[in-house]
Amino acid sequence: MTRLSSAVRSLAVAAATLFACTAVSPTAQARTGPGAPGDFVALRAVDPTIIQEMRYPYPHNFMGEPVDGYDQPLCILTRPAAQALHRAQTKLLRQGYSLKVYDCYRPQRAVDHFVRWAKDLDDEKMKAEFYPRVDKSRLFADGYIAEKSGHSRGSTMDLTRVKLPALPTRPYRPGQPLAPCYAPKDQRFPDNSIDMGTGFDCFDTLAHTDDPRIKGVQRAHRDQLRDALGAVGFVNLPEEWWHFTYQPETYPDSYFDFPVAWRSVAGRH
């Protein structure tokens, strides 16, 4: 068995385990409907080897509850974005790594849920992990929450790299003790990804991709992720090391609201 085929086999086992465990411009338009446009696809249909650890259908996120619109733990993207991820994944597998996505297309109803939560200043049950150094009243002003998200256009995703062979991330248990998202890797919530300096969705300036306090191996890991994705057309959001958008976007001025579910992209290959 070649190194690549061995990596793919290990990845497929890990991905299956994960799936079972977790199984604006002025002219912008909000688009609703029962299904996605024809050029949206499930990432699994384009590349089943990319690990999916979707966070928002479950309570391990900054709100501490499942997010509206995430009916199933599924990454949906525009086809060009999914195909570009596949090209990046093919190269990474040869190097002994895999991509892992946390979030992809995000319906507008999910963004609305974020906004409602951010306005409820009494709900801080996940503060100790996701925003320990940020006053919740500052989430809008500091840019952590907004009424529109590029994710709703279908070409943006949040992701990281995982060293192969990958083991599944331990499931989150609601009510468990929380650790700051910027703590050393062995102290924050366990994640099978390589050390990027903070956890995913860390509302802190340490999550800025080029924050000068991130050095050494953590800096190298961020640069390697950005280089691998940049080579196939993705642009990083400087405030979030995990956030990338494929350019040119298929729908630069549209914000969709179909649910994250297999039925939204039924029959797409």
Spatial order of the strands in the main sheet? 3-5-6-8-7
What multimeric state do the chains show? single chain
Rg? 18 Å
Unreliable runs, pLDDT <50, ≥5 residues?
1-28
Which structural class do you get from the secondary structure elements? alpha/beta
Protein model, in words:
The protein is an alpha/beta fold and 269 residues long. 26% of the residues lie in helices and 13% in strands. Strand 7 (234-236) and strand 8 form a beta hairpin. It is globular, with a radius of gyration of 18 Å.
Primary descriptors:
two-stranded parallel sheet, 9 strands, alpha/beta, five-stranded mixed sheet, 269 residues, globular
Outline the secondary-structure elements.
Layout: H1 3-22, E1 29-31, E2 40-42, H2 43-46, E3 51-52, E4 76-78, H3 79-94, E5 97-103, H4 108-119, H5 127-130, E6 156-163, H6 216-230, E7 234-236, E8 243-246, E9 254-256
Parallel strand pairs: 1-9, 3-5
Antiparallel strand pairs: 2-4, 5-6, 6-8, 7-8
Structure at a glance:
The chain is built from six helices and nine strands. With 269 residues, it is an alpha/beta fold. The model is unreliable at 1-28 (pLDDT under 50).
